[in-house]
Specification:
With 266 residues, the chain is of the alpha+beta class. It contains seven helices and ten strands. β8 and β9 form a beta hairpin.
């Protein structure tokens, strides 16, 4: 029996028509296909992971002190007719409220978030967990942690985006209706399953051609995709071979270097 195509929460994104909206490229349908065929290459910044776990520990202590009923690192598996969505959400409060914690490496980035900017990938991930668990509310909580002289990390800034989904599937952020809906999220997941099953080389995401702010900027497959779009590479096999060469070269150049992502996404 053939296994169903599968995607994880960190690959969540919104989609309008054929266009995928993703800040760091994790939701790019072409990236999802290539990543399913070749091993992931590149190191993950250990201090970034440490921040995330430290933040979770502190948040759990706060909930304990409040006597709040919660589950931590909840495994989510949503088995659908066309594929399987899975992931681990940070906290599920009372079985009905999703909490996703995000640790930023930059104070300036967190200030932008406080002004009303959010990373669409993070919002899509939180909403995907809300949909999968049938949660009635959710929150994205961003924080900035600074290293101290004694080797510990101290949280200096924190900001919360309260997320809600109305009866029509519209998504609100801190009470303001966004341009996104649950339909946009499910459309992306449906197309991700289709891309994996049928091995479709999809269009690159929104703003991919921008000089600054392009989701392709840090993608290890950028050069391979450039070759495909230019017609130098014409099929999936050629695209995978180019991507394998590029990622192998990238691994040699960045061995031991931290991730470029400013906010953790899982």
């Amino acid at each position: 029996m053939t296994s169903k195509p599968a995607i994880r929460g960190s690959r969540s994104a919104f989609m309008h028509g054929r266009t995928v909206f993703t800040k760091y490229g994790g939701g790019c349908l072409r990236n999802i296909l290539i990543s399913s065929k070749i091993p992931r290459v590149g190191d993950i910044d250990p201090i970034h992971i440490y921040r995330g776990h430290l933040y979770e520990d502190e948040y759990g202590k706060m909930l304990d002190a409040q006597g709040t009923d919660y589950e931590r690192e909840v495994e989510v598996i949503d088995d659908r007719p066309d594929g399987v969505f899975s992931g681990h959400l940070d906290f599920l409060i009372g079985g009905k409220r999703v909490i996703e914690l995000k640790s930023s490496q930059s104070k300036s980035r967190l200030r932008d978030i406080k002004k009303g900017e959010y990373i669409e990938d993070n919002l899509a991930q939180a909403v995907s967990y809300m949909v999968a668990t049938e949660a009635t509310s959710g929150a994205l909580i961003y924080s900035y942690w600074e290293p101290q002289s004694d080797g510990t990390l101290k949280m200096l800034l924190e900001y919360t985006h309260e997320i809600a989904i109305d009866m029509f599937g519209r998504i609100s952020d801190n009470g303001a209706v966004t341009k996104w809906s649950v339909h946009d999220l499910l459309a992306h997941q449906h197309h991700a399953f289709k891309v994996l099953k049928e091995e479709i080389i999809w269009d690159r995401p929104h703003n991919h051609a921008q000089l600054w702010g392009s989701p392709c900027h840090y993608c290890p497959f950028k050069s391979a995709c450039d070759s495909y779009d230019a017609g130098t590479v014409t099929d999936l096999q050629g695209l995978l071979e180019a991507a394998t060469r590029d990622t192998s070269s990238l691994a040699n150049k960045t061995e031991g270097q931290p991730s470029n992502e400013e906010v953790t996404n899982e």
